[in-house]
Amino acid sequence: MTDQIKQAMSGQEITALLTEAARQELGRITLQQDMGPELSDDEIDSRIECLEQDSLNLKRRARRNDFTAVAQPLRAAAGALGIMLPATIPSDLGRRAADLIRELKDVEAKALDGEDARSAASPLVGRFSTLPVDTFLSTQPVLLSETWARALKRYPTKSMKGNIDAIAKVAIEFFGNVPVATITKQKQEEFFAWMARLPKTQGRSHGKNRFTEKARREGRPVKERKQLTKQDEIDTADAEDEAVTEAIRARTDICNLEKRALLVEKLKPRLTMTTLRRNRDGLNRLFKAAADLGCPEAPSAISYKEVERAIQAAAPDDPLYIRVTKPKLRMPWTEERLAQFLTCPIYTGCASVHRRWKPGPLIVRDAFYWVPLILLTAGTRIEEILLLKRNSLRLRNQVHCLALGFTSEARGKTNDAERIIPIPQLLLDLGFVEWIKSLDDTHGPLLFPEIARRTETGKVTVAFGKALTRTLGHLELADFDEDLYAARKTLSSMLRSAKVGDGQRQALGHTRHEGSRPRCAR
User: Fold this and answer.
1) Contact at 8 Å (CB) between 485 and 385?
2) What is the pLDDT of residues 111-143, one digit of tens each?
3) Residue 445 DSSP class
C-alpha cells in the first residue's frame, strides 16, 4: 500500500494474519508429530514444561502491552500474505495474537503428550474456518495476483485482457499482493480516491514503442527510461499543479472565480469518472474471480455513487481546488469540418506520400484516402475496414458489397458484426471497386497492408489513428472531440436527423442479439 494510506489495521487484515499464523504453526506441529524424531520421556517432559512457561510469559507480557514474543510468527504470516505490518505491533492485534500463540502452545504440548494433533487443533481451527483441519492446513488465502490470472480465464477476449491487466496492475501497486478478503469497503474508497489523482496521461512515459522493441530484437542499443510508478506520476502531477495554483493564488488583481477559470486551463487533467467507473467494474471482475477460486469472503466492489462520494470526501478544503478532467465527448463532425477535410490535399492532391498535408499533384489511394470515406458513408468500425481483404468484395444481386467480420482473424465486436453491406455510391463514383480489382498478389491479402505493417501488436486502429491525427494536425483539422472514431458517429447522427430508424443499428453493426444470423444490409 502507498505511504499516503498508513492507517490502523482493519479487522479483515487482523483475521487474515491470525489465520495464516495459525495455519503455519499448526502445519509445523502436525508435521513434527507425523515425521519428527522420537523423543525420550524426559525430553518430552522438558519441552512441555518450556511450552507452559512460554505461555505464562506471553500472558505476563500482554499485561504490559509487550508483544515482542508474537512478532516473529506475525511477521512470517504478514510476509506470506503481502501485508505490511507496522514496526510496533498494534495492541488489538497483539492481544489476539498472544491468545492464539498460547492456544497453539497448548495444542503442541498435547501433541507431545501423545494426543492427536489434529483432534487437539480442531476447536481452534473451527474459529477460523469450517474446513477439516487437514484441508485448512493445505488451503491458502486467495491473493490478488491469483484473481488476476483467474479473471483472464473468465474473460478471455482480447479487449477484456487489456482492461483486466490495467486494473490488476494498479490494484497490486496500491494494495500489494494481499488476500482479496482483506480489501474492505474503506480500503476500496481509499483506492478510488487515490486513483482519481492519477493524471490522464498516466502510463505513457515508459518509452516503449515499435521502434524500441524492434531495436531490442535486433540487439541494437536502446536508451532506457526510468519506469515510473503510479505514485510517482501522481506526485509529479500534484507538484506541478501546486506550483500553478500558488502562482495564481498570489494574484491580487482577480477574484477567486477568475482564478478558478484560469486554473481549469492550466491544471493537469486527471482520470475521468468514466474511466474510474470502468476500473470499478474491472475490480469487481477480480472479486468474482476470487469467489471462483474458493475465497469464502470475497468482497464486492463499491457502487458508482460510493466511488463518487469517496472522491468528493477526499477533496481538500480549498476554494481554488478543482479536479480537472478532460472527457472525450465524441461529437459528430460538423458540416464545416467535413467540408474542410474532404477538400484537403489528401483528396485534391498532395506533395508526396509522406506529406499528405501539403498541396501537390499526387493523389495516393490507400488507407488514408479510402478509410475516412468508408467511415463517413458506411458507419462501420475502423478495425473492420482496416482488416478488409481483397476478397471481401462481393457482387450480390448486381450490387457491389463488402463482407465484414466473416473470417476468423477479423471477428467483430458483437454477434451482429458479421454482415454484408452495399458499397456507398460515393465510393463507387470514386472508383473504389476498380481500385480493389486492380490490386494483384504482390499487394498482399489485405486491402490496406500499409497500416498492418505499422504495428507490431496488431492494433491497427491505434496505428492508423495516430498517423491520420498527425496529418490532420498539419492541416489544422485535429480536434479532441471530433476525432477519427467520431466519424462513425457522424453517419449515425445524420441518419437520426433524417429519421432513418428501421435497420439503422443493424447496418452499423451495433446491436447484440444472441444467435443472430449474418445478413445483407441493403
Assistant:
1) no
2) 999 899 999 999 999 988 888 999 888 888 899
3) S
> What is d(CA 113, CA 132) in angstroms, rounded to the nearest whole number?
22
What would the grid cell of residue 426 be?
Answer: 460515393
- Pinpoint the residues of the chain covered by CATH 1.10.443: 335-520
| Whether 89 contacts 69, CB under 8 Å | no
User: Do residues 405 and 417 make contact, with C-beta atoms less than 8 angstroms apart?
Assistant: yes
Q: How far is CA 190 from CA 158, 427, 460, in A?
A: 30, 53, 37
C-alpha cell, 94: 497483539
Domain 335-520 is found in CATH 1.10.443: yes
CA 32, CA 299: separation in Å to the nearest integer? Answer: 36
CA separation, residue 98 to residues 19, 85, 126, 350, 489 (Å): 13, 16, 18, 80, 65
Name the DSSP letter for residue 399.
E
Region 451-459: mean pLDDT is 84
Q: Which three cell numbers stand for residue 171?
A: 490494484
Residue range 65-106, pLDDT digits in tens: 889 889 999 999 888 888 888 888 888 899 999 999 999 999
What SS3 state is found at 272?
A: coil
φ, ψ dihedrals at 201, nearest 5°:
-90, 10
- CB atoms under 10 Å from CB of 485, counted, come to 14
